[in-house]
Design brief:
Length: 157
C-alpha cells in the first residue's frame, strides 16, 4: 500500500483512506444490519446457538460481578460448555435480554433456548441436584455425576 500512495499529497492519501473506510463500513453494515443487535430475532439466535447460553456481566475468564462469578463457578464444577455473552459490551443486549426473557436481572442462564433463571435459581438447582437432572434431560453429563460414578467404582473394588 505504501508504494501505491507514495508520491500522493497528504490530502489525496486522506481521501483514499476515507474511501476505504467507507467501503469497510458499508461491508460491515451489510452483514450486521440483517438482524438488529438486541432484537428478539437476534437474541433468539443467540440463545438457540448452543445447548447452554449465559448472559452475564463480564466473561467466564473475568466475571464483573459476584452473581456472574457464581454462575461461572457452578458451570465449572459441572464442566458444562456454554456460550457466554457479556451484556456490558452492548446496552442493546443488556436491555434486550431482559425484555426477551421477561427476567429483570443478569446473569441469565438458558438451556436449549429456555430460560432456567438467574444466579439464585441456578445455585438452588445445583444444591438440590435439579441442575444435574436438567442437564441430563438435555444430553449433557455433569462432571459431578462422573466423579460420583468413578468414586463408586473405586469403592466397589
Amino acid at each position: 500500500m505504501n508504494k501505491f500512495i507514495f508520491g500522493l499529497s497528504q490530502n489525496s492519501k486522506q481521501i483514499l483512506l476515507l474511501k476505504n473506510a467507507s467501503k469497510i463500513s458499508q461491508t460491515f453494515q451489510k452483514f450486521s444490519s440483517s438482524v438488529d443487535i438486541g432484537s428478539k430475532e437476534h437474541l433468539n439466535n443467540l440463545v438457540s446457538k448452543s445447548k447452554v447460553v449465559v448472559f452475564m456481566k463480564g466473561n467466564p475468564e473475568e466475571p464483573k460481578c459476584g452473581f456472574s462469578n457464581a454462575v461461572v463457578q457452578i458451570m465449572r464444577m459441572h464442566d458444562v460448555k456454554y456460550d457466554a455473552h457479556d451484556v456490558l459490551q452492548d446496552e442493546r443486549i443488556r436491555q434486550g435480554i431482559k425484555d426477551y426473557s421477561e427476567w429483570p436481572t443478569i446473569p441469565q442462564v438458558f438451556l436449549n433456548g429456555e430460560l432456567i433463571g438467574g444466579c439464585d435459581i441456578l445455585i438452588q438447582m445445583h444444591q438440590n441436584g435439579e441442575l444435574i437432572e436438567q442437564l441430563q434431560k438435555n444430553g449433557i453429563t455433569s462432571a459431578l455425576i462422573q466423579e460420583v460414578n468413578e468414586k463408586g467404582e473405586k469403592d466397589e473394588k
